[in-house]
Amino acid sequence: MQEIKEIDILEIKKSKFWCYAFDVKTAEDVGFYFDALKKLHQKATHIVYAYILSSPHLEKAVDDGEPSGTAGRPILNVLQKRGEKDKVIFVVRYFGGIKLGAGGLVRAYIQSASRSLSSEK
C-alpha cells in the first residue's frame, strides 16, 4: 500500500477539497484507503471517491452525501477520459459554509480529480 499523503488541497468559497490518488488492484485496496482517510479526516463533511479496476473490470463512483451525480460521477469521468485503470481518486471535503450549487460541486470535483492526477506524476 502507498503512503497516505495529500496530493493537493483546493479551496473554493471556504470549502476545502483534499485530493488523493492511489494505485489499486482490488476493491479491498480501495476500502483500505477509505478507512485510512476516514481516520485521518474524522471531521470531514464528505469523502467522495471513484475508481476503475481492470481485472475484473469494475467502475464505481460514490457521492457520500453530496447531491446525486455531483461528486463521484465527475471523478469517475476524469478517470475514464484519461484512460486510467487500477486507480482510485478520493476527494475529502470540509464544508466552508457557502453552498456551491450542483454546477459548482461538479466543477470542484472535476478540478480536484484532475489536479490529483496531474500532481501525482
Structural account:
There is one protein chain. Helix 2 (72-81) crosses helix 3 (101-120). Helix content is 36%, strand content 31%. The chain is α+β, with helices and mostly antiparallel strands and 121 residues long. The protein has one domain (8-120): Ribosomal Protein S5, domain 2. It is built from 3 helices and 5 strands, in the order E-E-H-E-E-H-E-H. The radius of gyration is 13 Å and the shape is globular. A 5-stranded antiparallel β-sheet has the order 1-2-5-3-4, with helices on both faces. A hairpin with a 2-residue loop joins strand 1 and strand 2 (15-23).
Could you provide a short overview of the structure?
With 121 residues, the protein is α+β, with helices and mostly antiparallel strands.
